[in-house]
Amino acid sequence: MRTLNVELAERTYPIRIGAGLVSDPALILPYLKARRVAVVTNDVVGPLYLDPFVAGLRAQGLQVTEIVLPDGEAHKAWPTLNLIFDALLAARCDRSTTLIALGGGVVGDMVGFAAATYQRGVPFIQVPTTLLSQVDSSVGGKTAINHPLGKNMIGAFYQPKLVLADTTVLDTLPDRELKAGLAEVIKYGLIRDLPFLEWIEAHLDRLLARDPEALAEAVERSCRNKAEVVAADETEQGERATLNLGHTFGHAIETGLGYGQWLHGEAVAAGTIMAADLSRRLGWLTDDEVARVKLIHERAGLPVIGPALGADRYLELMAHDKKVSDGTLRLVLLKGLGRAVISAEATSAQIRASIEACCA
Ligand code: NAD
Ligand code: GLY
User: Which of 98, 105, 108, 152 has its CA 20 to 30 A from that of 75?
Assistant: First the structure.
């Protein structure tokens, strides 16, 4: 088992990465406030992993409430969030109940937000089951639901007590979801870790073949990058925004097409190509570097051309981005591979040109 910490003073918590961790309830016990937990999952992950997971917790004498949500990004919304509150209240869960998110980023983001707000805050644990959630969403305490006008617009910063990333559960992940997770892995290389980008380029075939050692290495190196950024800038006053490379364009794709049409990682991939193209227009990346960014995404089986929403619609949707400050859109761009910056330097005409060049 590999362990690293997200260093946040008295709220510091461990990320544990390894094979078979979900079958070891002893890893969870030290992080509970009381012997009461609510395990929240969805109707895809539940049939695969809920019963053995809950049986293990009950065998330790814990009182467990099970909550199964409908699957999918389209359900990352108020009505589904309310299902969690309904079940917690019906089971008379009190403030000492720990919520456990067993699922991908959708479950994790919603359970985190439920934990932040249920009775003004209860502890929670992340057990991420997708590559994307293991390398990104389970770490760092961003929790949210979507709004029809924008992705992740309603939420809170609220850190878990523990992240348990079991690489064995990735065996059942559909190929398309695995590839979507790779978009966030590649992101760390592009924004701040050139040696990691080179490692991904060299080991991408092993990752696509689900080599367990390669996956564990990718999860650990990704989480290490994320943990460092979160420790330095928990509430995104600066550096943390660089984790959103490709996301401003990507969120426009997700919202514009309707949540769930393109996977989050797919939208981020196409958005990253737009961000790289824009960086080249500003003179910060060479043609060869943009080609390299494109190639790694293509090799990972990710889309490098955005959908044809029309540049006007992209720009309208991007104006809702959380990085808009005082009416100015700031974008995460690359000043070389491995070096992201947050910049308002691109003109509307340049942004429009990149969208038009990189979309169907
Ligand atoms: P997801 O949670 O929808 O999971 C993808 C699909 O895989 C779902 O159908 C899910 O039920 C299924 N699944 C999950 N684990 C499985 C397993 N082990 N075997 C088989 N099927 C499995 O999507 P995701 O990609 O994990 O997360 C995307 C979400 O994460 C988006 O809503 C995005 O906004 C959010 N996100 C949040 C952060 C953050 O910092 N909080 C960062 C990145 C992304
Ligand atoms: N995925 C972006 C962040 O956690 O800040």
Answer: 98
